[in-house]
User: Which sequence fits this backbone?
């Protein structure tokens, strides 16, 4: 059963973005949604798992950072 696509993933998880992103990696790899993150730390984990999927910084909404492919 096809339910649709995921185009935006917004996280507000009080500094646990890495854990939330780890749990959603399969979905992120499949759909490559726009990511809206409260805390964005460009560390090794982000480089290996998110930026390697061709995500780049695309802007801000209030204090949240936007990443897109």
Assistant:
């Amino acid at each position: 059963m096809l339910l649709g696509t995921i185009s935006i993933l917004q996280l507000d998880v009080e500094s646990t973005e890495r854990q939330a992103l780890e749990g959603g990696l399969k979905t992120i790899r499949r759909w490559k949604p726009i990511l809206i993150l409260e805390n964005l730390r460009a560390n090794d984990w982000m480089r290996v798992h998110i930026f390697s999927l061709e995500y780049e910084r695309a802007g801000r909404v209030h204090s949240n950072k936007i990443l897109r492919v």
Residues 17-23 form the longest helix (7 residues). The mean pLDDT is 92.
